[in-house]
Amino acid sequence: MAEANRYTGKNVTIVFDGVTISNDYSELSIERSIGLAEKTAGADDDASYNTTYRSSRWSLKLFNTGEADASIRTKLKVGTTALLTVYPKGNTTGRPVLSFTAIVENYKDMWKFNDNTATEVSGVSTGAWASDIDALVS
Amino acid sequence: MPDLFAGIERGITQRLLASAELLSIVGERIYADIAPEDPHGNVNYPLVLFSQVMGDYSNDSPRDNATCRYRVVCVATDTATAVRGAEAVFNALQDKPLDVPGWACYWIRADKAFARAEREEKTTYFRRGADYFMRFDRA
Fold first, then answer.
1. Is residue B33 within 8 angstroms of chain A, CB to CB?
2. How many CA atoms lie within 13 A of A52 on its CB side?
3. Cα–chain-centroid distance for residue A136?
4. C-alpha distances in angstroms, A49 versus A40, A46, A54, A56?
5. Is the bond into B46 cis (omega within 30 degrees of 0)?
6. Counting runs of H as helices and runs of E as strands, what totals does chain B give?
């Protein structure tokens, strides 16, 4: 049977600095973008650009105990720089893998009296990706 | 994960049977869903009934977690006893996590009050209680 053209995040595995942090994750997003330098001349009818450099932002939402936890809260302290590896379909040979050095830029807890507290962590990538889009687990 | 809800029923029963305040009002007449009849077809009052109102596996993370709501009411033939029974149930359950094997209960609170009176064969049955909302995740 052909592979489905849709998939969910249920098999996502996230490893940060060698530790799996996806056991109770809720959302992960990674956004890549390219810088643009406009070169439109005043007489042009249409805007035009030169591409400059790539950049990436990531954010992660996860549940945790709220206590000191070496695998989550300690690892994800702001300012931490470490390798973030994401296996969108699990750490299985032949499946996709994304990997880059990540800087933890923001760490946010918000407590609601009558709801689960989820920690939101976000940051940027620094340098070239170790495993870019279309890379597969070997 | 059907074991969760069977475990919750056992947990509620254990918690209520451990309440001396409640036992002094209803004895051990604490039942899931429906009260049993004695050999003569009678039901003895007052009593406590509880039943599941909703159950939801959240599926918002790889870790199994669930929420559910149980209605727990005291049924009596006079209002005062029904109210006292409902208060005793509240004292026994509010913020007192259930023991459910394999699961961690981290929230149990009344979130909707319940009151109803029904008249049947010249007897009025007063029901007082609340819906208790619960949260669990895999221990």
1. no
2. 7
3. 17
4. 7, 10, 14, 20
5. yes
6. 3, 5
Over the stretch A8-49, which tens digit does the pLDDT of each residue have? 999 999 999 999 999 999 999 999 999 999 999 999 999 999
Identify which of A9, A134, A15 has the alpha carbon closest to the alpha carbon of residue A76: A15
Judge whether B41 is closer than 8 Å to chain A, CB to CB: no
CB contact under 8 A, A24 and B60: no
Interval B27-70: pLDDT, tens:
999 999 999 998 998 999 999 999 999 999 999 999 999 999 99
State the nearest Cα–Cα gap between B11 and chain A, in angstroms: 22
Please check the confidence at residue A53 and state whether its pLDDT lies above 90.
yes
Interval A86-112 mean pLDDT: 96
A88-108 b/e (C-beta count within 10 Å ≥ 16 → b): bbeeeeeebbbbbebebeebe
Calculate Rg over the CA atoms of chain B: 16
End-to-end CA distance of chain B: 13
pLDDT higher than threshold 60 for residue B2: no
Model-level pTM?
0.87
